[in-house]
Protein: Glycoside hydrolase
Amino acid sequence: MGYYPDWVGTTFPPAKVDFTRFDWIDFAFAIPTSDCNLTWDDPSVAPGLLASLVAAAHSKQKKVKLSIGGWTGSQHFSSSVNNTMARKKFVKNILAVYNQFHLDGIDIDWEYPGHQGEGNNEVNPNDSANFLAFLQLLRGALPPPAAITAATLNTPFFGANGKPLKDVSNFAKVLDWILLMNYDVWGSSANPGPNAPLYDGCHNSSQPDGNAVAGYEAWTAAGFPASKLVLGVPAYAYISQSTATRLRTRRSPPGTVRLVGDGDQIQFRNLIKQGALVRSPARDNFGPIFSGAGGFTRYWDKCSSTPFLQSPSASQVVTYDDVQSLGMKAAWTKEVGMLGVNIFDVHGDLDSWDLTDSVRRGLGLIR
Structure:
């Protein structure tokens, strides 16, 4: 599985996606409006791009969901589900878009029910209860083959008391699966930490809930089946202006490269393009090994099972995932009986699809 965001359309059109490597693609994002409808970041581009993506996927017998919301698009979720009339209108408008674009499912990426996200979202103590009522209504409206999924934190939805719900089993009855957004645990910082920890291996993290294992344990303990859990993994990194030699809780030679990213984020493919990583002839069980270059040295953070790069001359630390760390995550999801892995996003991978293939190897889909 993988996300295809609307902002990559000009540089990475749907025809470039190798659908043989994916079962599902999530098109991101449609955005809820204040009147219980849907809009787009760029209405002049997104609808045509979605139509092209669906046509390309269906020609390869693969499926597409429309992801609604996202970090900057969750402002009006609360008012769109907070009463029966609003829910009916919202579902009606989602169904219209579902039919218009011949979709295979709907993904709800509400960040977050009952909890503030970006900073300007509507928040209601009853958000999670209203969200469940909305999902039940949506399930009844969409045709039976349609998948309904949700992107979530590593902790269950927040209840009226402001704490994670202890029982989410009713959500499991209407959702085909949820995606644990196990990324952005730490962003850019002078004291950097891992973007997407597998676990708190050293038992000293200041965010003990911010890792894949903790997310799995929290959701299954609250009654959500492991077989309906998907692990979200990043194909991007964070660049920190830092002289740290270890990740928060790291371990260096002179350099010539200084990385440039968008808002301190950088895609894995651009780590290669800008010269901080180079593909070596060596391989491990999950695929090719990428080594530090241009003054960056690659290290392994055993506490989170993720790599990081450090350049003393550029005073930069890069926290990211690669073939080895993603393969480990995928192998772990298979071991514990989770449904699979979803990459954010497909454009972050290389044209050779090394990251995606490492996930497929970890899942046992290819050798």
Q: What stands out?
A: Residues 70 and 95 are 19 Å apart (CA to CA). The first strand starts at residue 2 and ends at 5. Confidence is low (pLDDT under 50) at residues 248-256. The radius of gyration is 20 Å.
